[in-house]
Amino acid sequence: MINFKTIKAILIDCALGAYSILVTYKVVYEKLLQDIRYADFSWNEPLLALGIGAVLGLVFFGWEGFSVGKRVMGIYNPPFGQPFIKAPYKFLSLLAIALTFVAGLHYSQVSVYEFLSESGLEGARKIFIALATPNFSIFEETMFAAIETIYMAFIATVFSLPFAFGLSFFAARNLMKANAFWRLLYVVTRFVLNVTRSIEPLVWAIVLSVWVGIGPFAGMLALCVHSVVSLAKLYSEQIETINEGPMEAMIATGAHPIQVIWYGVVPQIILPFLSYTIYKWDINVRMATVIGLVGGGGIGTLLMQYQGLAKWHEVGLIVMVIAFIVWVMDYSSAKIREAIK
Amino acid sequence: MNILEVKSLYKTYPNGCQALKDVSFEVAQGEFLVVIGLSGSGKSTLLRCINRIHPASSGQIIFEGQEVTGLKGKELRKLRSQIGMIFQHFNLVPRKSAMVNVLTGVLARVGIMRSVLGLFSKEDQTEAIEKIKIVNLAGKEDVRADNLSGGQQQRVSIARALMQRPKLLLADEPVASLDPATSNSVMQYLEKINKEMGVTVICNLHFLSLVRRYATRVIALKGGEIVFRGTPEQITEEWFKTIYGEDAVEVSVH
Ligand SMILES: Nc1ncnc2c1ncn2[C@@H]1O[C@H](COP(=O)(O)OP(=O)(O)O)[C@@H](O)[C@H]1O
Ligand SMILES: [Mg+2]
């Protein structure tokens, strides 16, 4: 019996087999056992692995205790309480995870030696002491940069509000089911929002700084783009949970669609919207700091400058101020959100 | 004169569910028509087809001599504005006062901008206060709808419907979520509107005791088809079993 599920199961076994073989050869054998620094790479290697994986997948297909794919797709259901030893597919899954772990350690260059080397420890001691004894002579400069960051985040949130608000109605499934045209508009809106949201604000900052020049404006625009899409998603999810009764009642009075939305939908969502918006401002302050690191202005940029000059006492002060701001924003936004619930 | 004529109305939902099959009936001006039937028999669907919240699949609906099944946009909204609707769960706008809720009954007559800004005219406000008085809620104007009791909420929704100055009132199980005493009081408001203001009423009901007390005429739906037409007195034991099934026992609300 060949159906969609069995095909998926075979593909999973095939991919898992190919992956395990490739990692075993390229990382465990070449890098760790042979210690080859610049290993040759040819596309034949993954192709060969894929071939072996395909063979393994087909073999395992007839041998279901071994097939991870069959188990995942729910085709093979072992009796409850089956001993571990009789479930080879579990060992195979664990093997794949262990291989990934080993490869991960290798690629992130985990080195106990460097972590505990004498010069390394000495450097750590110096920097931690410097960070712990911040230089307060740049306090004013830091404060102004921090204010810049907070306002930048605020403006980004405010500018994004009307766009997110407007878009959220088009991204709410329950409002967009009238006919094919609206359903299509819903799908398109969702798609654009998802694609835009999958691009990190940091990347937006880099792109936009080419457009409007490096500085707070680029950072603000980047935050704005990100806020619009993430708020639109949060808002629209809120709209999807409303009670449709009031909406139906407004339709029944002969109200125009805009009036239906205004009276039938908005009163039900306004408080959650406000709460999300404040939360977003809080998040934007943190993001503005990170965006500052790539030249988006504010306290992040200041941090970057002093770090570049290796002035660790100054960096210590900036870090302290950032921690303070994040804590204050976090605390007050939580309090405000609680109050308006 | 017939205010409403429904001719071989069919309704099939997009999921294929056939909710109404060949439903035809007339409603004369001033009647209190009650629709009965088991839950799922198509009562709510029927009311929602009349004010076009749901589009009919085929058949004709003639309101005051005008065929309304094809209406769109502004015309459709005008039709709806002449037909008040009362719901089982009241469907008031939460977080808004009773006053604002009653005022939403005039949305069809107010400009979009004005209504979004909440700028209702003096006349509309006076009228709203009047309607609130009719349902005996004077003094509750500024109470938030969600802070009122069930019976009070239903009365606000009646005032909202009155604000439309309706020619026809559709009530979809208006007392199904109220206790017996409150049920009777709400039904009495509907009766008053019907008798004193001359508004034609079509009302879905569950309890036969209420049907007997308030209906001038009854139709019964079963599986989307009309299986009974007549006066409340004509609902005999046999008819009752036909409509509600062999095992049904009549319970009453006093
Ligand atoms: N929006 C809908 N989509 C699909 N089927 C529906 C919908 N609303 C009601 N139905 C179906 O139509 C039939 C009649 O429902 P309804 O008119 O609500 O009956 P009643 O009000 O008498 O309980 C039921 O079988 C119900 O499941
Ligand atoms: Mg119903």
Largest sheet of chain B: 6 strands, mixed
Please tell me the overall pLDDT of chain B: 89
Bound ions, cofactors and other small molecules, one mention each: adenosine-5'-diphosphate, magnesium ion
Classify the fold: give the CATH topology of the domain at 2-90 and 167-244 in chain B: Rossmann fold
Low-confidence stretches of chain A: none
Termini of chain A, distance in Å? 55 Å
Strand content of the residues of chain A, in percent? under 5%
Radius of gyration of chain A: 28 Å
Assigned CATH superfamily of the largest domain in chain A: MetI-like
Named at the architecture level, the CATH assignment of the domain at 2-90 and 167-244 in chain B is 3-Layer(aba) Sandwich
Strand order within the widest sheet of chain B? 6-7-8-3-9-10
What would CATH call the architecture of the largest domain in chain A? Orthogonal Bundle
Order of helices and strands of chain A: HHHHHHHHHHHHHH
- Oligomeric state of this protein: heterodimer
Structural class of chain B: alpha/beta
End-to-end Cα distance of chain B, whole Å, is 34 Å
Poorly predicted runs of chain B are none
Category by helix and strand content of chain A: mainly alpha
Most extensive chain-chain interface = A-B, 20 and 31 residues
Assigned CATH class of the domain at 2-90 and 167-244 in chain B: Alpha Beta
Question: What proportion of the residues of chain A is helical, as a percent range?
Answer: over 70%
